[in-house]
Amino acid sequence: GQQVMQIPQYQHVQEGEDFTTYCNSSTTLSNIQWYKQRPGGHPVFLIQLVKSGEVKKQKRLTFQFGEAKKNSSLHITATQTTDVGTYFCAGNTGFQKLVFGTGTRLLVSP
Amino acid sequence: SQTIHQWPATLVQPVGSPLSLECTVEGTSNPNLYWYRQAAGRGLQLLFYSVGIGQISSEVPQNLSASRPQDRQFILSSKKLLLSDSGFYLCAWRPGDYGYTFGSGTRLTVV
User: How do residues A85-100 score in pLDDT, each as one tens digit?
Assistant: First the structure.
């Protein structure tokens, strides 16, 4: 079945450092979504990318969808302690269901 | 406004006992509804999804079942819980062709 892998599994940075998580799907995706889950909380939708090579920004967060629509990345510039949490990508193949990636847990030290 | 409700927030159940988790959505009609499970420190596993009343698709063979008795109600059940059923259960719906909205989740511990 479809698999979506993320690397790294875990990253610990100092506040102000940059952070990037990478997402790779075993199959071509119709779109990809990113979610953030704070410790003890539920996933919260961040953004959706649809077009090949698409790049979107949300303040310090930059999201990119690969040309082949099989990979994606999330880059955070100058991390803050509020960025702590687990970031999931989720791929949609167009069959009414979303397959979530394995997640990257981010810890930010002040 | 559109909201999703899930309860209870936490649950401790003995092995072999039944389970019923309920999820309801307000402010919309005929939503696609989903049940996910998250083991501690892990990703989200899709368990069931439903595109309408009485329509259930199962993704993983297991000790659980789902039902959709009403348009905006989605229920996750088990007749006899196993230790391996412990986890964080999340209900979600998709407002249109966009991101999923998750409920606050139920933390189930089977003892």
Answer: 999 999 987 666 788 9
